[in-house]
Amino acid sequence: MLSLNAFLLLSAVLFCIGLFGALSKRNAVAILMSIELMFNAVNIMLVAFARFLAPASTVGQALPPVSTVGQVFTIFIITVAAAEAAVGLAIVLAIYRTRRTISVDEVNLMKW
Amino acid sequence: MNDPVVILAFAVLAIVMLVSAAAVVLLRNIVHCALFLALSFLSVAGIYILLNAEFLAAVQILIYAGAVMILLLFAIMLTQRAGAIAENPPNNQVGMAAVVAVALFGLLALVLSGTSWLTGAPAATQPNTEALGRALFEYYVLPFEIASVLLLVAMIGAIVIARED
To answer: Which end of chain A, C or N, has fewer beta carbons within 10 A?
Structure first.
């Protein structure tokens, strides 16, 4: 039986793997990759809720059905994640150009 | 969702996704990490198909496995010293990071399995891309336009930040 909980647990495992990577990496690009994994975990959870939650939980008649609302949320998250990746990698390139390293242990300019 | 083929597909996709995600955070060569990240994105697209979200599966492959992966690979190539092996060492807080991740997973598993969700949505039998487009352009027009402005801002910002001089 493939229930909502299977997808939610899969998403939780993926999120925790991404969290571990974001906390334990030196390379700034690797940290951005781990953050992308966490975005994907959240997206899986939203789409699973959209697929499984009962229509009775729709907010009201003025809104589209809950199955489409979850997917619309996911589209916006993907948009913002793409923008984040572009700006983040541009910052990584700028840091590499000035300091010749992207190890976040050595880029501590703003550390007080 | 009780079809054995569906359950088998879910199991295969979940195992591929989690193993490649673990490879992303554990391997030392960052180019290998990026390639495993692409595999993980592709299996997420498969999960979307299992969840009746075929448009999102296409978007996932186009945006993540296409555009974001190319960006990441370019960033990796542009930030390597010539001749150096692509290194991706862990920092000195691996143990704490593992503890935090496992603790968060325990908390999430406890909450997720302890909640009784109001499930029971009927399985969609026809493609819902049309419904998605209607929802996007009838109810969410303003967020859609703001998202396009956000992408423009991010594009200009990325060009300005990464430009020489």
So the answer is: C
Query: Which of B5, B17, B39, B129 to probe by mutation at the A interface, max A CB count within 10 Å?
Result: B17
A42 vs A112: CA distance, rounded Å: 32
pLDDT tens for B111-138 read 988 888 877 766 665 667 888 888 888 8
Q: Which amino acid is at B103?
A: A
**ipTM of predicted assembly, 2 dp:** 0.90
Residue B2 CA to residue B7 CA, distance in Å, equals 7
Euclidean distance between CA atoms A15 and B107, whole angstroms: 12
Distance CA A34, CA A16 (A): 10
Q: What is the pTM of this model?
A: 0.90
B25/A34 Cβ within 8 A: yes
Residues written for chain A: 112
- With residues binned 3-state (H G I as helix, E B as strand, rest as coil), the percentages for chain A, rounded to 5, are 75, 5, 20
Domain boundaries, chain A: 4-55+65-99
Interface contact B128-A53, CB threshold 8 A:
no
